[in-house]
């Protein structure tokens, strides 16, 4: 049977399914593959009238010799690093803590509350944090006042703003992320706990020898995923929490692309920076996926 | 004796655990309740309210009346609802169609299309090329720009494929033996069985569209097209008081009405999250279940 015959035959059987796929495939082509083609702007000079001019690596030369880009790159790495160190472990502790609560009622109340911020936009969360961190009327400085500390303008202080990112990230995502670990804990064979109890294990010994080993694969997978996404330091978050006083402390790759591209109109340079991030990100996430697959047998997708 | 020590120790531990968790609940909920209290207090009392209060002082709905009658907030609400509902509607149709086809194990080319989709997850060329695509398609300043832009989410597509794959093959074969075509099988057999998964991704999409602010900001020049999130951003994050209060009222503002800007901001934040709070019980019901079974697998 020839190739053409095979194709017509499978089309005769499967055409309704290809029809169903068509809109989705066209969508991905137009809105995800067409932009990849458009990214050639990184190697061109943008012109409003007439075709763009090919300039090769010119914009990358400009980018890598600019101090602004270096600072942005550094900020991205610092902020991602801080999140890795201080945000990543929180949901693990949270899941362990929730698991130790007796009584479904209390557990449900706790879970219902701490999952909520995950579903709020960063615009909303920025609004909440700006209010809560206000030096004059915010709850945080009110509490500082109670214990006799002077109010601090956290949102405009160079030394605090990265910590504002860390804490707002914890506030928003730690609860929801704990769900993944909690699910992993729920999947642990109850017999293991029974056996540990028979051996006279106390709460801490059970956590150390049964619960923790049970969620190590989940921790490993999520950790590797986070490494793979290291360059995504959180556009929506920084975009809404930034201000003129501290912009240079938290300007990250994504906000830089937005700023120089859509605000100051340096389209080519911005595309070059965005494409740089996309390519490095691609390498990192694929490496993370393969590493995770090797280590835990479970990939990132 | 030893066992008695142990139970009292365990009681202590339990107290510590429960109080830690309750503290976390307070940290999560208090800032929101504070804003609610401020938005419901009478204007002259707000001046003295701290960030710790969670109970309104001198109950008043002035803030909410102003917001509900504000043209910018009203059009924002209508725009948000339109984008969210029509966007989610298209999302569900096209995600389900694609997922059903891709869940057929023998479909020729299935793997290639799957990889074709996966590539879009791992490689994103950035927002500037996206912008030029929208521009080239002539979609700038149209609702289509934000609705079509996320017509199928690759992650949700994968979730749905995985779910469809778990439907027993016998049920599908039985339908096909009865003469049902691909569309009929999807409609009469697959979709009814996949209700929990469909509900989950519907809620995902709803929340996504409701919370989107960046693309409308970039793609809409016309402020009358702005959804609520962008209006909120202009007012609360960028601190543009004139936009909400209006120039004339700004001009003859006295000290006491200046204070109500704080209440207006609080009210505006809550107004924007109100719909999320309304569907939150559903989210708890479906998301938590969906994510849990997904993680267990």
What low-confidence regions of chain A span 5 or more consecutive residues with pLDDT below 50?
A: none
What average pLDDT do the residues of chain A reach? 93
The structural domain count of chain B equals: 2
Structural class by secondary-structure content of chain B: mainly alpha
CATH class category label of the largest domain in chain B? Mainly Alpha
Strand segment count of chain A: 2
State the CATH topology of the largest domain in chain A. MetI-like fold
Q: What is the string of SSEs of chain A from the N terminus onward?
A: HEEHHHHHHHHHHHHH
User: What composes the largest sheet of chain A?
Assistant: 2 strands, antiparallel
Structural class of chain A: mainly alpha
Unreliable runs of chain B: 292-297
Residue share in helices of chain B?
Answer: over 70%
Please characterize this protein's 3D structure.
The complex is a heterodimer of chains A (301) and B (297). Chain A is mainly α. Chain A has two domains: 3-45; 61-296, MetI-like (MetI-like fold, Orthogonal Bundle). Chain A has 14 helices and two strands, in the order αββααααααααααααα. Chain A has helices at residues 3-38, 58-65, 67-86, 90-100, 104-115, 122-132, 139-146, 161-186, 190-198, 203-228, 235-241, 247-250, 253-263, 267-296, and strands spanning 44-45, 53-54. In chain A, a hairpin with a 7-residue loop joins strand 1 and strand 2. The mean pLDDT of chain A is 93. Chain B has two domains: 1-60, no CATH class; 62-297, MetI-like (MetI-like fold, Orthogonal Bundle), CATH 1.10.3720. Chain B has helices spanning 2-39, 43-46, 62-69, 71-103, 110-122, 127-136, 144-149, 154-165, 169-177, 182-193, 195-211, 214-219, 228-237, 241-245, 247-251, 255-296. The longest helix of chain B is centred in the C-terminal third of the chain and has 42 residues, at 255-296. Chain B is mainly alpha-helical and 297 residues long. In chain B, 77% of the residues lie in helices and 0% in strands. In chain B, helix 4 (71-103) runs antiparallel to helix 11 and helix 13 (228-237) crosses helix 16 (255-296). Chain B is globular, with a radius of gyration of 25 Å. Chains A and B meet through helix 1, helix 4, helix 5, helix 6 and helix 7 of A and helix 1, helix 4, helix 5, helix 6 and helix 10 of B.
